[in-house]
Q: What sequence folds into this?
C-alpha cells in the first residue's frame, strides 16, 4: 500500500487578498442571464467585538434553479444543466463589513440516501485572522423544505440553526449576516 | 435510492492549522467559539467549480511582463503540480497567485509599509493546470515585511496561492515559503500547523534543473489537496 500524501496546510488569505482574489463581477451569478428566481442576499460580517470585518471574502457554490450542480459528479439526468449558470460566486466585504450577492434561488438537491436537501448555497469563508477557510450554508426562511432538511434537522441549538437561514428583508432582498463569535454566532460546518 | 459519490477524506490531527491560534493575534476575535457541526458530505460538498472552459479569464503566468518596464527583484520561476492525496494530478483547476514586491510592499491601498512601490509590479497572476496538473509562473522573489502581530515581527518571504480541486471542500488557500528562510521559525502563521511534515509542505524546493541560465532561479512547489475517502472501483 502506498502511503498517502499529506494535504498542504491552509494559510490565511491575509489583509491584501483583494490583489489576487477580488473579482467584483463574480458577485453577480446572474450575469449570464440564467433561468430561475432572481434573488439578492445582503449581509455583514462581524468579529468577536461586534466590529465589522472589512477584509473577508465569501465564496459561494450552488445548484441551478432545477437543483443540479454543474459538475461531473452530479448525475441527475432528470434535471437540466443551465448553460448560463455556473453556480460559483465570490464577494469581498467593504470597509463596513458589508457584502451583496446577486444570484438565483437554487432548487432542492439530493442528500445522502433518500434524503432531499432544502435549497441552500454553500459558503466558504476567508479572512485575515483565519488560518484556513470556514464553511457554512445559506438557507432561505420562506422555504417549507427547511423542516425536513438533514443538516438543519441535525442542529439542536435553535440560535445555531437560525444562523444558517437568510431572512426576507425590505425590498425582497435576503439578509444573511456572518457573526464570527458571541451572540448569534454563525454555525460553521466541519466538512 | 440516490447514490452519493464517495466523500473526501478529513485531515489528520495536526496537519491543518487550528482556527484559534493566539500567537497569531488576529485569530483571537475571529475564530469560532462553538464547536463546528460535523456533517457528512453530500453532492453539495463534493461538487465544485471547474475551469476547463476558460470562463475565469485568460492565463496570466508571467508577472514580470509589464507594459512600461520590468519589475525590480530576483527573477524566479515557480512551478509544480496540483495533486490529491493519492498523488493523482488535478487538471483544469484554477491556480491564483498574489504577492508583494521585492521590497516587501503590496500593490494594495491598505499596505502602508514604508517600502517603495514598484511601478512595474502589480503582483497577481493566474493559471489553469494542464493535463499533468502542472502550473508555472514567472515572477520576482517577494521581500520580507514587518507586521503588527507582535513587536518587531516580520513575515517570511511568501507567495499566496489559491487552488480549487475537484469539489467545494478541496478548496485551498495557502502560502509558499522559500527554503532556508531564517524568519520561518519566528512566524506564527507558518508555525500554526503542528505536524512538521505537513508544515514543510509549505516550503518550495530550489531546483537547479528548473533555473534558466543567466535569467531566473527555479523553485518547485506542489500543492496537495484532500483526496477521496474511499477509492472507487476503476475499470482497467
A:
Amino acid at each position: 500500500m502506498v502511503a498517502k500524501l499529506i494535504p498542504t496546510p491552509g494559510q490565511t488569505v491575509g489583509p491584501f487578498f483583494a490583489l489576487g482574489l477580488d473579482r467584483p463581477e463574480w458577485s453577480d451569478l446572474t450575469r449570464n442571464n440564467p433561468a430561475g428566481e432572481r434573488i439578492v442576499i445582503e449581509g455583514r460580517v462581524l468579529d468577536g467585538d461586534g466590529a465589522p470585518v472589512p477584509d473577508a471574502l465569501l465564496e459561494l457554490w450552488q445548484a441551478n434553479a432545477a437543483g443540479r450542480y454543474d459538475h461531473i459528479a452530479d448525475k441527475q439526468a432528470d434535471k437540466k444543466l443551465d448553460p448560463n449558470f455556473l453556480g460559483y460566486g465570490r464577494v469581498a466585504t467593504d470597509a463596513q463589513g458589508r457584502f451583496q450577492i446577486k444570484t438565483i434561488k437554487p432548487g432542492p438537491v439530493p442528500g445522502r440516501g433518500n434524503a432531499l436537501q432544502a435549497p441552500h448555497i454553500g459558503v466558504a469563508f476567508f479572512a485575515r485572522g483565519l488560518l484556513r477557510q470556514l464553511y457554512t450554508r445559506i438557507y432561505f426562511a420562506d422555504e417549507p423544505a427547511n423542516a425536513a432538511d438533514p443538516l438543519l434537522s441535525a442542529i439542536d441549538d435553535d440560535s445555531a440553526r437560525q444562523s444558517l437561514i437568510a431572512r426576507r428583508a425590505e425590498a425582497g432582498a435576503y439578509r444573511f449576516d456572518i457573526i464570527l463569535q458571541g451572540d448569534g454566532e454563525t454555525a460553521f460546518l466541519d466538512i | 435510492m440516490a447514490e452519493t459519490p464517495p466523500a473526501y477524506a478529513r485531515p489528520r490531527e495536526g496537519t491543518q492549522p487550528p482556527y484559534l491560534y493566539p500567537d497569531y493575534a488576529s485569530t483571537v476575535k475571529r475564530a469560532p467559539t462553538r464547536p463546528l457541526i460535523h456533517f457528512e458530505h453530500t453532492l453539495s460538498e463534493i461538487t465544485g467549480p471547474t475551469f476547463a472552459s476558460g470562463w475565469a479569464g485568460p492565463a496570466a503566468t508571467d508577472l514580470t511582463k509589464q507594459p512600461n518596464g520590468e519589475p525590480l527583484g530576483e527573477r524566479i520561476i515557480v512551478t509544480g503540480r496540483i495533486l490529491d492525496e493519492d498523488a493523482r494530478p488535478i487538471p483544469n483547476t484554477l491556480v491564483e497567485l498574489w504577492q508583494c514586491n521585492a521590497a516587501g510592499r503590496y500593490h494594495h491601498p491598505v499596505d502602508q509599509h514604508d517600502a517603495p512601490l514598484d511601478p512595474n509590479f502589480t503582483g497577481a497572476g493566474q493559471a489553469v493546470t494542464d493535463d499533468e496538473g502542472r502550473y508555472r509562473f514567472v515572477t520576482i522573489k517577494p521581500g520580507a515585511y514587518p507586521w503588527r502581530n507582535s513587536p518587531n515581527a516580520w513575515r517570511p518571504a511568501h507567495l499566496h496561492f489559491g487552488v480549487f480541486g475537484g469539489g467545494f471542500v478541496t478548496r485551498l488557500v495557502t502560502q509558499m515559503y522559500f527554503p532556508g528562510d531564517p524568519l520561518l521559525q519566528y512566524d506564527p502563521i507558518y508555525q500554526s500547523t503542528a505536524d512538521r511534515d505537513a508544515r514543510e509542505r509549505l516550503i518550495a524546493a530550489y531546483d537547479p534543473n528548473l533555473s534558466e541560465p543567466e535569467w531566473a532561479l527555479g523553485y518547485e512547489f506542489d500543492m496537495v489537496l484532500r483526496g477521496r475517502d474511499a477509492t472507487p472501483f476503476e475499470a482497467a
Notes: Chain B touches chain A through 86 residues (CB under 8 Å).
